[in-house]
Every structure is written in structure tokens, then in C-alpha cells.
Amino acid sequence: MKWKKATFLRALKGRPMPVSYQGWEYRGLGLTLERLRSAKTETPTRWCLTHIGTGHAIAFIEGEQVEVMPICAELAEEMDWSFTGLKGWQNMAPDMPRLVVAWMDRHVRVIERLQGSNSYQKDEILANKIANRSAK
Prior knowledge:
- Strand 2 and strand 3 form a beta hairpin.
- The chain is 32% helix and 28% strand.
- A 6-stranded antiparallel beta sheet has the order 1-2-3-4-5-6.
- It has one domain.
- The protein is globular.
- It contains 4 helices and 6 strands.
């Protein structure tokens, strides 16, 4: 497992254009720091795992970088994440939903599952913008 520093685009709920983030990349998945641990409020460090080909978040993971990277690498190594478009996984990895859910279930103590935006059309437009920019 070798995560490398990278800049990639993320689709954010309620934003019409993708946003550039600096983080770490491994096998088509991106990891960005969302929040540092706070002793004052007792909140843990939180990361966002993103599919780089669409810019869409997969999950939030709590923990320190040394703990989170192997958990995320486990999912990265489950399948080929090089697809683009929100339905791109259907041909490349039809088992993706089952694999992601199983991964989340194995790490339920540190993973926050995300809910969709309820707007597939807007999500697909953002995913296509990200795919087009990444291809350049």
C-alpha cells in the first residue's frame, strides 16, 4: 500500500462546480482531512474517502492517518476504481455495492455512512465535469 500526495476534485452537496482538494491518492480513491482531533470538544480526527473518477464521497472515517489509511486501502484493493460516471462501476465491478457495504460493516466503529443527495441528475453532471477535467 502506497498512498501518495495528490490534488483531486470533489463534488460537494449544494455546489454547482467541483472543488479542488489536496490529500492522498491510492488506486483511484482519495483521502482528505476533514477535521483535526480536538481535546477540548473530544471530537476525533475525521477523513473523507472519495472516488476520484467521480469526485463523490464514499464515507467519512474517524481516526488518525496511520489508522485510517490501511482501512481505506483495504477498500481500494477490493476492485478497479478507474471508472468514471456514477454508473461506470456497473460494467467494471458489478459487486461494488456489496463490497462497499461489507467493508463498512467490518469497520462500523469508525465509518460514517453517507446518504445520497436525492438528485441523480445533478450528481451525474458533477461527476462528468470531474471526469472531463481529470482526462485533460
